Amino acid sequence: MVTRARQVLFFGAIAGTIIGQEVYDRAAFDELESQDAFIQLQLTASAEFQGSEEIIGSTSTSGPYELHSAADAINPHASSQFLSVMVERVQNVSLDSVPHNEEYVDQGSGDSVCAETDSHLDPTAVVMSVSADIFRSGCKPSLIANKQVHFRSLSERAAKDMCCVVRLAILPQLLNQSCVEPLTLHDVESAITSGYNDESAVAVVYVMLRVVDLSRNLSMALDAEVQLRHQMNLPEPAPGWDLSFTRKVKVPYGVMPLSQLYEHYRQFFSKYYNTNVKCSAEVLQMLRTVQEETNAPYPNRWNLLTKVCLDHVLLGEKGLAPLLLTLSHCPNLSSLIASNNNLSDVPCAWLCALFHKHRYLHTISLTNNIIYEGGADQLLRLARRNHRLTKVQLDGNYCSQGLLKRLQYVTKCSSCSMQDDPLNIMSPAYAEITSPASVPVPVIVFALQVWAMLAAAPVGDVDVWVRNSTTMDMDQYEDSSLQGRSEAFEAAEKAPRLSIPLSAYAPLLSEIMRTVYLGIAAVIEDPLVRTVFMDIQALHDQREELRLKDRDKANPQKAASSPDLSVHENVENHRLPVDTERSDGVPLPGEIKRLLEKDADCDGAAASASSGWVEEEEEIYQSSFLNIIVVTFRALAGGSNWADAVQSLRHIGKQQREIGVQDEDYWLAANIFMRSLQICLGSEENAPKMLSAFFNVLVLGVRTAVASPALENS
Questions:
Q1: For the domain 253-420, what is the CATH code?
Q2: What is each CA distance from 237 to 234, 242, 279, 316, 459, in whole angstroms?
Q3: End-to-end CA distance of the chain
Q4: pLDDT tens digit string along 684-695?
């Protein structure tokens, strides 16, 4: 008997975040505050399309949200909760009756009631129930508010990275009734349908909902497993699972804690294996430790997890599945050790599918498992596709020696190719460059010539008016630019002095660093790592733009008469689309809007300009890649002692390591920098010599900054 595959239309999570409150009845609210009242949110979801159903059926409960005046503006990430959602096609409904419309456009009214009939709904349409329970001294816990939110397409909202804001009104009559006995859902709905306005409510709590699609990596892993089973004539799991109807959207970086991401995948594999996949306490502790060790303004930095050792944790194949899916979202994972875990060939297929484009994974150890030729062949394919993988250990498995030798040969070739790359700034070939004495004097001279070109000041900073016999007659004419320049000089004198050298603001050097940042930002997702490779001139321009805006707010009349100055932006600001108005046209409060706009600035450049919790310009420069270049060349040019420069470089490298910068990041940055510099030099006669000399000094500065025992012994 052939069992039909279960067709998954959507798998992901819905995040609910309390972003603020608005008080209308101060007396009643003060009474709630005196009772130490707090609320808890509960999220549930059910499919709205007749041909689909939500099969996880879980309920997500948030932490306590205290009702007090100081909670008007809180951190949006502090009280986030996540509801696992999986929408599946009903088995007895044919595919023809499921209208999969790729051109469907969500109108954005996330908290409005859909007026269309069921035939107009998307198969991934769900109705969300957002309810709030109130807890206070002297009264029993009771339901106090409820809102039905209709998402007409989870896939579309996840693909567009949209969110909506829901208003939960706390009504006075419900507060009085809940003191007598706990309320039911019917009581709350009756009070809401009887009609109310904002002024009649005690307070309104704002909840932001965001849809996250988690099917992309999951689909790749399951497809690889199916192909492996077909090749080896292994039985397929009954029933099979088909994720081809999902949108396969990339998961936004840091959208949730790693422990919560692991929980979502664990719930899926519990359905997949038709058994309860136990949650490993050791794995949860490892994932939570990474979260607790950081005090960065970004709450969920997935790149901090770099090494995973499961030698003392027996997970098995089913327990390893959700963990591998979680680790596939960790961009800085460099070592994965899963020995003695009773793993078969299937996890090898998952590894090949999930990590073939990973930038940092260089070690995989699967010793003493039950891996046969099929699994070893999958790892061989992974080593051929991902040339960063330089060490694969399969000792103690059931693989032939010939296959193991081929695997060892491929990883050795990858290691040699990286070491032989002339632009690999961390290659052992440059191990002898440890001090200026190890660099020939002619090389340093050529490098300083290039540095003089890069650090040249802009023309506008030099007063080129030379008073001599040819200009004496022109002194009678008034120079219209003198007043503007004198005002600029006075403003510069009054401005606070920065500890950043003027050479860091040089136009050509800033342009090259801007190119480096754009290349880094296209590969690295972590915002703090991106800021390491920023050009300081862009930060300075953004800071000046904010200063002008603050000045215009203080003096609106002068702002109206002055022209609008546009400041060059470093990169595009990819903001999170937010439904800023309700369906009835009532706008959100200004405090909530500012909070949402602040949270939307997730990119390093935008956040550094508009978010108050990001470091100041000087602090960003002190831990930047640009600072390494400036300190190195200023020391060689005689601006400082080399011993003092070494101390400064070591401090910069330590800060960058704490942020999460890897050796491959320096490699990429040096590659982009030298290509840009080659374009600047053009076809000059001494261009090759200058490029080679500059790169040697750059190697000296970077290797001194990030020196480690392993690097020094290489």
A1: 3.80.10.10
A2: 10, 12, 22, 17, 71
A3: 61
A4: 888 999 999 999
